[in-house]
Design goal:
By secondary structure, the chain is α/β, with parallel strands linked by helices. The protein has a single domain (about 5-190), classed as Vaccinia Virus protein VP39 (Rossmann fold, 3-Layer(aba) Sandwich). The protein is built from 6 helices and 7 strands, in the order ααβαβαββαβαββ. It has helices at about 5-15, 20-35, 50-55, 70-80, 115-120, 155-170, and strands spanning about 40, 60-65, 90, 105-110, 125-135, 175-180, 185-190. The structure holds S-adenosyl-L-homocysteine and magnesium ion. Magnesium ion binds near residues 17, 19, 110, 136 and 137.
């Protein structure tokens, strides 16, 4: 098995919620098509999506934030094994506390689903001209559109928040949003006008 498949297997066996195949393929196509160079990711987990994105092009540079120290450790190991240490920097930090003057072509938001608006506001000044935000899990396993699929009060609260955020990016005239409910777990590309 190749290394990236081992990382994917590890994630599946240990319930690490990495991007679905459809989502990551779509994101990688976008990165290649747009010739994206500088990427910021919120929510590294074990480095799967970072590694996949870095492999789209040899000159892509990624900063990625992860709050959980154990996952940071695993991500760094995986990135090292893939020989990508010089192109992917893992920051052990809550993404809303990550301060940088860097401008990114793509800011991929995949950390705490209830905090998407906070991450977006925090990084508004870090999007390059023509840069975009990409958000994952806007369907949250279909529960956002069918809340009766869950009995959990916490999950009901969470999907309500996701719905409010999704409606916000899809309707506010400040944004040019392409929302793809059928891609992976629901992905949106948002350009701030
Ligand atoms: N992007 C990864 C999956 C990320 S899962 C992939 O597709 O491979 C979401 C991750 O966000 C979890 O590892 C979780 O620990 C992390 N996270 C949650 N809240 C966070 C925050 N405030 N800042 C940074 N990371 C956070
Ligand atoms: Mg995700």
């Amino acid at each position: 098995m190749n290394k990236i498949d081992e990382i994917k297997n590890y994630a599946q066996e240990n319930h690490v919620p990495i991007m679905l195949d459809g989502g990551i393929e779509f994101l990688c196509e976008y990165i290649k098509k747009e010739n994206t160079k500088r990427i910021l990711e919120c929510g590294t987990a074990i480095g799967y999506s970072s590694i996949k994105m870095a492999k789209c092009n040899d000159d892509i540079l990624i900063d990625t934030c992860e709050i959980n120290p154990k996952l940071v450790e695993l991500a760094r190991q995986n990135i090292e094994t893939e020989g990508l240490t010089n192109r992917i920097t893992v920051h052990q930090i809550d993404a809303v506390l990550f301060e940088t003057t860097e401008k990114y072509d793509l800011i991929f938001v995949d950390a705490a689903k209830a905090q998407y608006k906070k991450y977006m506001e925090h990084f508004l000044g870090n999007v390059s001209q023509d840069g975009v935000f990409v958000f994952d899990n806007l369907c949250f396993h279909g529960i956002v559109d069918n809340p009766e699929l869950t009995k959990s009060r916490n999950t009901k609260q969470l999907v309500k928040k996701i719905k409010v955020f999704r409606d916000f990016i899809c309707t506010d005239p400040k944004f040019e949003t392409l929302y793809y409910p059928e891609v992976g777990d629901g992905v949106a590309i948002v350009k701030v006008k």
